[in-house]
Design goal:
By secondary structure, this protein is mainly beta. It is built from one helix and four strands; from the N terminus they run βββαβ. Strands 1-2 form a two-stranded antiparallel sheet. Pfam families: ADH_N.
Length: 73
């Protein structure tokens, strides 16, 4: 399973979250993530400041990693 750090509600702390990834599709890129930054946008999303959060949530979009696989397209 894949692992991430998730929040389960707007006031909760981060905790380890394991989940299954779907199969790679034609336009996908599989990246093994080594580092991830958390920015102010991620904090607003995790705290549901914009009323659009879906939990559990694994925030973070500023990543560093290695491409392991690419889809056919």
């Amino acid at each position: 399973p894949a692992k991430g750090w998730a929040v389960y509600d707007p006031v909760g702390s981060f905790s380890l979250f394991e989940f299954e990834r779907r199969s790679l599709k034609d336009n996908d890129v599989l990246i093994r993530i080594y580092f991830c930054g958390i920015c102010h946008t991620d904090i607003h999303e995790a705290q549901n400041d914009w009323n659009v959060a879906k939990y559990p949530m694994v925030p973070g979009h500023e990543i560093t990693g290695i491409v392991e696989q690419v889809g056919s397209d």
